[in-house]
Amino acid sequence: xxxxxxxxxxxxxxxxxDREGFFLAGRSLTGLVIAGSLLLTNIxxxxxxxxxxxxxxxNMSSMAWEVLAVVAIAITxxxxxxxxxxxxxxxxxxxxxxxxxxxxxQMTVVLFLLAYGLITIPSILYSGTIAIIETFSEDLSxxxxxxxxxxxxxxxxATYSVAGGLRAVAISDxxxxxxxxxxxxxxxxxxxxxxxxGSIADGWSLLINAQPEKFNSIGTTTDPxxxxxxxxxxxxxxxxxxxxxxxxxxxALAAKSLAAGQQGILIxxxxxxxxxxxxxxxxxxxFHLYGDSLSSMDQAYPRLVRDVLPPYLMGFFLAVLxxxxxxxxxxxxxSTATLVTYDLVIPNAQEQLSDKTLIRIGRYICVAITLLxxxxxxxxxxxxxxxxxxxxxxxxxxxxxxxxxxxxxLFFRTSCSKGAVSVIVFHLIAYSLITFVIETNIHFIHWxxxxxxxxxxxxxxxxxxxxxxSTRTGPVDLTPWRxxxxxxxxxxxxxxxxxxxLSPLGIAGR
Length: 510
What we know:
Radius of gyration: 22 Å
Strand content: under 5%
Distance between the termini: 44 Å
Order of helices and strands: HHHHHHHHHHHHHHHHHHHHH
Number of strands: 0
Helix content: over 70%
């Protein structure tokens, strides 16, 4: 961990002197660094814990979030990123403010900040703490390590963001990504070998014959992620995450060229397709080993790791696990600092602020949001459906209105600020009612699709003057990656193959 930190800061030295260096890595990131950083930013402890727990308690149906995300990744790389880089903005609310007005800009900033501060950052702190303590301790509830572990995650993650900016975050992500891939293959292999008494093949044969129903990615209507949701709201939720979420697109916005950005995003898509093997297969193995003896589904992955990983690898696993936690945590801190600095501080400043002052403000924001996350994180242990479902449900407060407004801003020149504000107000009221007040018996992902359709009609029905886009060119080379279409085709083939294999037509039908 120390080695990665030192190397990250060495490669960052002298490159964060101005605001663009601190917040956008000087627009210098290469494709492989972007791919590794996106992988680590997306795959954190709450995803590992949550998806493994879902496979342990149910089946493979929750892999839909990961697999369908690849479609959203391809759309982001091929459709959204070229337009983003051509415009050359720093934050998404900045673009929306220029396209509509300052009210839309500030409302979207508030949506992002509430989501990051109240849900995403606390969930990363909490899930990282669970993962570490469950891996090294017999009993989470009685462990005295909870507070120091959570404080350590917060302190080290904040140090990356405060000291090194986005470039240090991205470089450390890419390096930790190597370790994540290594353990992603190793842990299922060791677990299967343990099942097969030294033979991975025998372990696999035993597993698919004993629990073939667990390999069903289609699932049933009672699963946390019904298959029908793939055709309603899930694509829009994934597109909102990969195409509009500031802490995700900030890596692509920092690309040295459009080709590098497309390469990084699309390569990250192949890593996403490995998640069922990396995370959900261990959850099924945990069910085979422990049955329903675990007190919480979120304990499945850490317990399995503790039982199958050799002691001499536990330290390295801890470093990689913490690396995934730090990645998502410090990425969120960095993006929060960017949003506040560029969308709240600079527009409202009475005088021109120096780059040194803006960087200092960004660092203060990182510290403040860390403290907020530490206050909220312990409350997440009360989640009745597991951490993964809780995060997905509460993401609905901001992801759908944001993607509606962004798509309208990019592709419908008569959309106006009144329509954008109407969408945000309508969504917050409607989603609050169906989440907390009215029992509709309709899955919240279906509601994503329903609300997307309604809100798109709202914003398109309120017309304004025809928008005249800027003719200035973006800050980087906009030549697209030559292999982009070939890679998109390969990703599509892999998606189909994965669903056919993990269905009643494949393993689940044995």
